[in-house]
Amino acid sequence: MTVTQQEMGCGRIPTKQLAFKALVASGAPALWRWLTQDRVAVLCYHGVSSSSGRPGVWNADGVHVGLDRFEAQMAYLKRRQQPVPLSWLCESLEGSRRLPARAVVVTFDDGLRSVVTRALPVLQKHGIPAALFVVAEAVGGSAPLWTYRLGALIDRLPPGRVTLDRLGQLDLTTLRARRLAFFRVRQRLKLTPAAERADILKAIEHVAGPAIAQEGELLDWEEVRRLAEEGFEIGCHSATHENLTLLSADASWREVAGAKATIEERLGRPVKAFAYPDGFYNERVVEAVRSAGFSLGLTTDPGLNRPAVDPFRVKRLLIGDEDPVAFGVALTGIRVVTSAAAGLGRRLARGWRP
Question: Which of 79, 137, 238, 309 gets the highest tally of CB atoms within 10 A of its CB?
Fold first, then answer.
């Protein structure tokens, strides 16, 4: 995984918006969606913030959707797509249900409190089902997940060039540079074992001072139960949100099967779907998820899902603070195709080198 233009927020600057409008005007997204109407779009959300925009670092990649944008996106889904429960996707892969054309599934990762305070009323207003993937040992915790804490800490570091233990020098001279530093540090820490990552976060906090992670508050079990009673399907996002590919087989099993048992005990209902933390998975992790008794494994691999998709490698479209035009394009999955085509074009331009 590398830092992408989407993470840098480049997808939301005026030039890119004009490109989206030109793409829509060409008719390509509509044609592509018609050609792929039997494929299922599974959307991956995280949180819903009070307003749109990406102030500072904490929402630099725009994965927290402003309430006004979320309202517009759900209205679009109700008007143009066929929102269905995640369980319908599972049943369709088992052969017991046929999905409608333009089917779309809404999911939320991490278990943030804004799902119940902001997302739920909008979803109920439009009659859209959704699934929530919770981190079993984080539910009800006072501390945010480490990614949200990191964003708050990077926001508090003094401007200029700051040298940190084990991270070296960070360029924080501009907001763009600060965001880039955040993305690079975050990506490194995603590939770092938990104990070492905790030490690095402490080193950053020693320089930055204590920080409060905006929009990083987690649901408690009472709120998760309320969502389940309101119709949310509750899935598992592991026990502690670790990169499962870095763990031993025994530790991975505890993260998967142990978390499943905890959530089922707390809710008194079966948990059938698993979302790989940060999208990291390999054959061993997939086998652990399958062996633990899950029926679905959701990735963050971008794209639409064919009717015969591997149920443990379900693709999802990461949805952020997109305006209606960009959101409509994202739903078609055509950005995955155009990105791949652009990459092929660059390779051909410099001489084919896979």
Answer: 238
Question: d(Cα 335, Cα 339) in Å, to the nearest integer?
Answer: 6
Separation of alpha carbons 34 and 285, rounded Å:
35
Query: Could you tell me if 104 and 316 are in contact, meaning their C-beta atoms sit under 8 angstroms apart?
Result: no
Q: What is the mean pLDDT, run by run of 10 residues, along the chain of 354 residues?
A: 38 49 57 68 94 73 89 95 97 94 96 96 98 97 90 93 92 94 95 95 93 86 97 98 95 97 97 97 97 97 94 96 86 61 42 47
Find out whether 300 and 336 touch, Cβ atoms under 8 Å.
no
> Cβ(195)–Cβ(234) under 8 Å?
no
* Angle at which helices 324-332 and 28-35 cross, to 10°: 40
Angle at the Cα of 63 from the Cα atoms of 9 and 231, rounded to 5 degrees:
160
**3-state secondary structure at position 292:** coil
Closest CA to 63 of 174, 156, 148: 148
CATH number of this structure's domain 10-142+218-346: 3.20.20.370
